[in-house]
Amino acid sequence: MGRQVGANQPGSATGSVVYDIDVPDFAVTLGVSSIVLTSRAAAAAATVVPDAELRTALPDPPGAARAFAQDDVMTVLAEIYDNRDTPGRLLANVTVSTPAGDVVRRVPAVRQSDDQPRYTASLPMEGLAPGKYVLVMDARAAENAPPVIAPPVPFTVK
To answer: Which whole number is the average pLDDT over 135-152?
Structure first.
């Protein structure tokens, strides 16, 4: 079901966009939020008022850029909600693929603390050829269990 969402940045000009979005039900067994990205280059770009919680969770402010230089390092953050009857250890990974689906890199995502559902991973762009890629974070209860996947994020390496 679509919902309409509005946002306001205190102390800034105000505008609005009306767009129907699907809000996932994170009360189900396993759920993965959308992905927040940052990089060293993102720190040089202007951002909105920094979020105090993200300031401690990420090395740099979140960025909207989806193009990265080969000498940059992308940091990925998502929240993984574990509402299984018996919550436990989860396996979380970040995968970089070509648009055709060929996996070029996979790294584990690490839970930041036991009291927060945040998982992060760092991805050096070094070794990725210039071109288009798709990033996905997934979570699963066991190695062979079906994954729950965050919305994919397309990005480019320059």
So the answer is: 88
- The model's pLDDT over 15-42, given as tens digits with 9 standing for 90+, comes to 666 767 666 666 667 888 888 888 877 7
Contact 8, 126 (CB under 8 A): no
When divided into structural domains, the chain yields a total of: 1
Element (H, E) at 71: none
- Token reading at 142: 């066991």
**CATH value at residue 87:** 2.60.40.10
Residue 125 falls within a domain, yes or no?
A: yes
**Of how many residues is the chain composed?**
158
The answer to whether residue 17 is domain-embedded is no
pLDDT tier at 1 (50, 70, 90 boundaries)? very low
- Which residues, 6+ apart, have CB-to-CB distance to 41 below 8 Å? 63, 65, 68, 69, 72
Q: Is residue 96 part of a domain?
A: yes
Distance, CA of 94 to CA of 138 (rounded, Å): 7
CA dihedral of residues 25, 26, 28, 31 (deg, nearest 10): 120
The rounded percent of the chain whose pLDDT value lies above 70 is 72
